From TrEMBL:
Similarity comment: Belongs to the LysR transcriptional regulatory family.
An annotated GO BP: DNA-templated transcription
Family matches, as NCBIfam families: PRK11139.1
InterPro entries found in the cross-reference section: LysR-type_TF_proteobact-type, LysR_HTH_N, LysR_subst-bd, WH-like_DNA-bd_sf, WH_DNA-bd_sf
Protein name (Swiss-Prot/TrEMBL): Transcriptional regulator LysR family
UniProt KW keywords: DNA-binding, Transcription, Transcription regulation
Superkingdom of origin organism: Bacteria
GO molecular function, one term: sequence-specific DNA binding
Length: 295
């Protein structure tokens, strides 16, 4: 006989939220984001065809029917945990680590290295969400937030793990077509800008003692990763952060026409909620980031 079962991830999110009376506390217990719990609860509500919570601004209350449902399924989760433990599989074996980081950092630095962490820790699921919002403005809770720094935020522990500077970079094919021997040669090229970083090129040109240089053209993108991709594609010259273009330089996708000057830039830092500082998985991932940053 076929069993008709609800989506189990959604059921797990509902059980935790109902038992704790809070989506936020459920997210912390399940090591996911507040938004993930809310989404799973909506999935279960749609599957059941009935609401489970009454939502009142920042708090949620079980409906009478959902309270009865929770009383029936709650013991089943406890029984499942006990049965699993008897077979030597602790419920803590599989963990999810919620990480929030800027998109360009994720694409250019974290993703190429994340496979090494997964290979060493196959029992850990790393869930990465991208954002440039300030740490204190994030609506959901995360185990680790990666941002520039060093900065100080109440309730967070900060540590730097990856230093960087900014230098001009371009594709080797572009350099072959139009060599750059001295910084003044930039006047014949297209300079690639990012709208959120308007001072990067002017500051570098000032350090190179050519503050009034006018390039042949300017191309501006709204996301920094698009600017770097345009440089890889030979569309112009970008100001590349050394940490985020290191792999492209090593692979020959980008070259650095001038070794100097180098613009100082903010380091990448981990910001960990104080409540997570004792979490072994969070400490493990932070230590891995620091080792990768030193390498």
């Amino acid at each position: 006989m076929n069993r008709i079962l609800p989506p189990l991830n959604a059921l797990r999110a509902f059980e935790a939220a109902g038992r704790l009376g809070s989506f936020k506390e459920a997210a912390a217990e399940l090591h996911v984001t507040h938004g993930a719990v809310s989404q799973q609860v909506r999935v279960l509500e749609e599957w059941l065809g009935a609401p489970l919570f009454e939502r009142h601004n920042r708090r949620v209350v079980l409906t009478p029917a959902a309270r009865t449902y929770l009383a029936e399924i709650g013991p089943l989760f406890e029984q499942l945990a006990q049965s699993t433990a008897r077979y030597g599989l602790s419920a803590a074996v599989f963990r999810t680590l919620a990480v929030n980081a800027p998109a360009t950092f994720v694409l250019r630095w974290l993703v190429p290295r994340l496979g090494r962490f997964r290979s060493a820790h196959p029992d850990v699921e790393v869930r990465v969400e991208t954002s440039n919002e300030p740490v204190e403005a994030l609506k959901d809770s995360y185990d680790i937030v990666i941002r520039g720094g060093p900065d100080t935020f109440y309730g967070y522990s900060m540590r730097s793990f990856l230093a960087e500077e900014r230098v001009p970079v371009c594709s080797p094919a572009l350099l072959e077509r139009m060599p750059l021997r001295v910084p003044e040669d930039l006047a014949r090229h297209t300079l690639l800008h990012t709208s959120s970083l308007p001072r990067v090129w002017p500051d570098w040109l000032a350090q190179a003692n050519i503050p009034l240089l006018r390039p042949a053209a300017v191309l501006t993108f709204d996301h920094f990763y698009l600017t770097l991709q345009a440089a890889v594609d030979g569309m112009g010259i970008a100001m590349g952060p050394t940490a985020l273009v290191a792999d492209d330089l090593a692979a020959g996708r980008l070259v650095m026409p001038f070794a100097l000057p180098r613009l100082p830039s903010r380091s990448y830092c981990t910001y960990i909620p104080d409540a997570k500082l004792g979490d072994e998985l969070v400490v493990l991932f932070r230590a891995w980031l620091e080792r990768e940053g030193m390498g």
